Amino acid sequence: MKVTIKEIANAAGVSIATVSKVVNGKDHNITPATRQRVLETINELNYVPNRIASSMITKNTYTIGLVIPDITNPFFPEVARGVEDYANQAGYHVVLCNSDNNLKKESTYIYMLQEKMVDGIIITSSTSSVREESARNYMKIGIPIITVDRDMKDFKTQGKILVDNTKGAFEAVSYMIEKGYKKILHLSGSMNSTPSIQRFEGYKNALKYHNIDFDPDLYLEGTYDVEWGYEGIKKIMDKKIDFDSVFCGNDLIAIGAMKAIKELGFRIPEDIGIMGFDNIYIASVVTPSLSTVNQPNYKMGYKAAELLINFIKNPSKPDDEVVLETELIIRESTL
């Protein structure tokens, strides 16, 4: 039978209010000896606090939701780890939801988290712009939302964690041009996402800066996965379009592209150079190792949790936007 807070109070020889203060971490005015006695009694009787009942009084569940678009993409587990590490330090639990890049599933998770009475939500949306109806519904939720890696214009959030994708892409493509690559194919992810749009802009800006005309034949839009990288190279080869290097929308696309290029008998980087984006852990162990743009994904998650929990504790805090820098990582896949 479940132990009650009243039984803990009786066993420890204190009031129910004292036990409640210890359980909820509001015991600053309780003597260390009394606090220790309560904790020992809780341990001896295996008491598990009823957080749902407690939340009805405190209006806090000390739980936050995290919605990500693709758990199979190695970029997002690091984001999740950053969120969880900060949340744990602050005494919060995290409910993880994977939307599979499906906007309907994403919306379902948002409503589920609201029903679970989470104190706030961190989200990397499957698109950069949600439908007008979804935007209105999200704003009705009444709990703070922080977005990560998406600059969503359609609804108000309490904070954004972004990276300078345009600058990162510009630096990567500029490096390739300076190393002698001139016909740079860009295999992009879906243009429904802000990072894809910004990386494409950085790619075009670098070409323009180095007096190279943008060639629409050297741009293909797809998805952020290995399969698209492989398929994209096969498509461009079938069209017999000449290129000497590939700037990929992320590292998964780059790994797929490398596989196709090697199967076709070309050398990397001597015949065709490859540049990725993200710096997932696989990038350093593939052969040849992948040049890429590092995103501080752990820090993105950590800062998102910090912003959210600070806002939960202080709702009058003004909205915040954090833009983190990228870093060019040069390995063996480029000259």
TrEMBL record:
PROSITE patterns: HTH_LACI_1, HTH_LACI_2. Keywords: DNA-binding, Repressor, Transcription, Transcription regulation. It comes from the Bacteria. Residues 3-58 form the HTH lacI-type domain. Signal peptide: none annotated. Pfam families: LacI, Peripla_BP_1. InterPro entries: HTH_LacI, Lambda_DNA-bd_dom_sf, Peripla_BP/Lac1_sug-bd_dom, Peripla_BP_I. The keyword DNA-binding applies. GO terms for molecular function: DNA-binding transcription factor activity; transcription cis-regulatory region binding. SUPFAM superfamilies: lambda repressor-like DNA-binding domains, Periplasmic binding protein-like I. The keyword Transcription applies. This is Transcriptional regulator, LacI family. It comes from Acetoanaerobium noterae.
